[in-house]
């Protein structure tokens, strides 16, 4: 019976680990800073929930396109190659070359900014960080809320400030998009960008869950012969 207990314990552990990994990823669990309300009281800002769905390829593709036009001018994504985009995201190579490769002409290259980060540091007062792993660092919801949290502030060098990252050095680069689209469309666009960033931070996350399912199924199936074998071995001992 001892062996059986071990098998049960092992299976339980494997399932628990699988579940923890899934929920940890879904929740993110980061706060989005604090702000002062009208009475001057410190309030915690709750992150908005980012519509991240790594099975929604259309959304990731739209996000890739917007990321390259609106973000990659300043930010690098140095762990991602352009070739990965057309292979994994089913974007035709010609389209990647024509519309997405704004910083190089080699598809095997990583996404690096055209402008020297050190110079940018001098211009903006803070160098734009690499965004390859940003959603893992801050959480999807933090990044989503941050991008939604820009507001006009004439006191700042670029005329904009941010609730989540007060006195931010990044300009409100989506300002034109914000005033030229509906509120829903604007949110969807930012959701798509974050979805792309989540894919970028962990391109295999979706596949990993599928593998996880099959591994658990395999373990469950393996349990049957192991159980019978166990019975067989102990039959004569007792
Ligand atoms: C004009 C240059 C510029 C562009 C374009 C730009 N950023 Fe930034 N970004 C910055 C700078 C500079 C910072 C550093 C801000 C600071 O630390 O105060 C920053 C910071 C950030 C941060 C916060 C990093 C952190 O963890 O502290 C995120 C997230 C981010 N940018 C995302 C984006 C996205 C997404 C886009 C495209 C929609 C974008 N940025 C476009 C300059 C830029």
From TrEMBL:
Pfam families from the UniProt entry: Cytochrom_C1
Endpoints of the signal sequence: 1-26
Obligatory cofactor(s): heme c
Subcellular localization(s) per the UniProt record: Membrane
Protein residues bound to heme c: 71, 74-75, 170
Cofactor note text: Binds 1 heme c group covalently per subunit.
Parts of the chain that traverse the membrane: 210-229
Domain Cytochrome c span(s) in chain numbering: 58-201
Protein name (Swiss-Prot/TrEMBL): Cytochrome c1 family protein
Organism, as annotated: Moraxella macacae 0408225
């Amino acid at each position: 019976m001892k062996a059986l207990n071990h098998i049960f314990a092992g299976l339980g552990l494997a399932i628990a680990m699988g579940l923890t990994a899934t929920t940890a990823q879904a929740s993110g669990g980061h706060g989005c800073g604090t702000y002062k309300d009208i009475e001057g009281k410190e309030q915690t800002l709750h992150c908005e929930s980012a519509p991240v769905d790594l099975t929604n390829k259309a959304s990731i593709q739209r996000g890739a396109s917007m990321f390259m036009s609106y973000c990659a001018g300043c930010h690098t994504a140095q762990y991602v190659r352009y070739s990965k985009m057309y292979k994994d995201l089913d974007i035709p190579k010609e389209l990647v070359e024509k519309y997405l490769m704004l910083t190089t002409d080699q598809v095997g290259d990583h996404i690096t900014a055209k402008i020297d980060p050190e110079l940018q540091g001098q211009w903006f007062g803070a160098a734009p960080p690499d965004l390859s792993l940003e959603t893992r660092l801050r959480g999807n919801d933090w990044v989503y809320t941050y991008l939604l949290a820009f507001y006009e502030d004439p006191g700042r060098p670029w005329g904009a400030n941010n609730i989540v990252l007060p006195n931010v050095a990044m300009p409100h680069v989506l300002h034109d998009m914000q005033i030229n689209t509906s509120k829903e469309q604007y949110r969807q666009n930012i959701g798509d960008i974050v979805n792309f960033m989540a894919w970028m931070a962990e391109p295999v996350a979706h596949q990993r869950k599928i593998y996880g399912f099959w591994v658990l199924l395999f373990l469950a199936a393996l349990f049957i012969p192991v159980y019978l074998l166990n019975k067989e071995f102990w039959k004569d001992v007792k």
